[in-house]
Amino acid sequence: MSIGKKPVLGGRDAVKVAIVQKAPRFLDKEASLARAETYIAEAAAGGAELIVFPEVWLAGYPYWTEGWDSSLQTWAGGRIAFRDAAVLAPSEDTERLGAAARRAGSYVVMGCNEIDPRPEVSTIYNTLLFFDRDGRLMGRHRKTMPTFTERLFWGQGDAADLQVFDTDIGRLGGLICGEHLMTLVRAAMIGLGEEIHVAVFPGAFALHTGPSLEEWDADHRSFWGHASVRAHALEAGAFVLSACGITDESDIPDTFPHKGKMNIRYARGGSSIIAPLGIPLAGPVEGPQIVYGNLEAWMIKAWKSIIDTAGHYSRPDIVRLVVNSQSPSRESVVSYRSFFETVSPQVLADAADAHEVDASRAERLIDQALRRPALPVGNTTV
After folding, report:
1. Catalytic residue among 22, 29, 143, 304
2. Backbone φ, ψ for residue 130 (5° rounding)
C-alpha cells in the first residue's frame, strides 16, 4: 500500500555521485580491472553512491583507423588485441567489478567493449554495464548505432538495451556518445522516467577546427556532447553525468601495432555533471581526476513543475513514440522448428484425406522421415 508519496531520487534529499576521469591501461583488461577496483574504492571513500566510468573505459576506445589498404599484420594485431580485451557479461570480469561495487556500497556504471555471450557469435559491442550496490549486474545498454568508422568495430544494440533501472538513489539510465544525437532514442529514455542519466564519450572534441577531424575542445565551447547532454537534462528533467575519456600515451603498450598512429589528442577528459535546468554543477574539467557532484532532489521537483516532458508538457494525442520490442541480440542465430510448426494441422488433414491416408499415420511417417540422418552427398541409396 502506498504511503501517499511519490519519491524522487529514491526519496533522498541528495545523492553524491562521481565520474572517474582517469585512464585505463589501454587494451589491457587485467590491468584496467585492477585500476577500476582502486578508483571505485577511492570514489566511494569520497562519499560517492554512484560511480561512473567513460565510454569503453574497459579497456579502450579504437582511436585508430582501418581500410582495405591497411597493413595486414598491423590490422590483425590490433584486432586480436581488441577482441582479447573485450568483456564477457556475466563472467569473472563482471564478478570482480560487482565485488568492487559491493565493497564500496555504491552503484557502478562501467563502459566496456563487450563480446556477445552467445557461443555462435563473436560480435563486440560498445556497452554500459550497470551494477547495484550489492554487486549484482542489473543489466546493460549496448550502443544502438555505432558512429562513422566505429561500425568497423562494434555491432548494434536493440530494444532490450533501452531500459531504466529503479534504484534506491533514483531511476538510472544511460546512452553512449552519438546516441545523444538520436532524438527518438533520447525520447524513449525520457519516456522511461530517468532521474539520473549517464552519458559517456571517448573525449571532448571539436569537429571543425582541424587539422584532424577530431581535435581537443580546449575552451569547452565546441564539443557537441556538451550541448546535447545539457539539452537532455532540460528535456528529461534529470541530472546528467557526462563522462569523457582520458588516454595517456604511456598506458599504450609498446607492442600494440597502432601505437603512435592513433588520434588520442582529444582524449583529455571534459567531464561534467549537469542539473535538470541544463546548468553544470561541475565541469567541464580536463586531466586525470575524479569529478564529484551533489544531486539535490528539489531541482527535479521544481523543474518538472514547469516542464514535464512525459506528462503535462506532452501531447500524445498529436505525437507519440513507438518502440519496437524485438530483441534479436538475445535470440539464437539458428532456430530449430519441426515440420509441423510450419504446416497448419488443417492442411495436413486435408492432404491425408485426399489420399485416403489416416492423418495420424501420415504425421508419424513424416516425423520419422524428418528425423532420419542426412545422406552423404552423392549417395543415392534408399
Report:
1. 143
2. -115, 120
202: nearest Cα among 42, 53, 5: 53
The pTM assigned to this predicted structure is 0.85
Reply yes or no on whether 304 is catalytic.
Answer: no
| Residues making up the chain, counted from first to last | 382
Instruction: Give the pLDDT confidence of 156-190 residue by residue, as tens digits.
Output: 999 888 999 999 999 999 999 999 999 999 999 99
Distance (Å) of CA 85 to CA 26, 59, 233, 246:
9, 6, 33, 18
The three cell numbers locating residue 111: 563502459
Catalytic residue among 49, 177, 194, 304: 177
SS3 206: strand
Catalytic residue of the set 55, 150, 286, 296: 55
For 175-187, what is the HEC assignment? EEHHHHHCHHHHH
- Does the annotation count 143 as an active-site position? yes
Separation between Cα atoms, residue 374 and residue 70, nearest integer Å: 43
Q: Is 218 exposed, middle or buried (0-12, 13-18, 19+ CB in 10 A)?
A: middle
Task: Please say if 261 is a catalytic residue.
Answer: no
Q: Render 281-329 in DSSP notation, one character per residue.
A: EEEEEESSEEEEEEEEHHHHHHHHTT--TTTTT--TTT---------GG
Of residues 157, 163, 79, the one with CA closest to residue 116:
157
Full strand arrangement of the beta sheet holding 239-244? 165-167, 170-176, 196-201, 239-244, 269-274, 280-286
pLDDT in tens, 227-276: 999 999 999 999 999 999 999 999 999 999 999 999 999 999 999 999 99
- Phi, psi (5° rounding) for residue 128? -105, 130
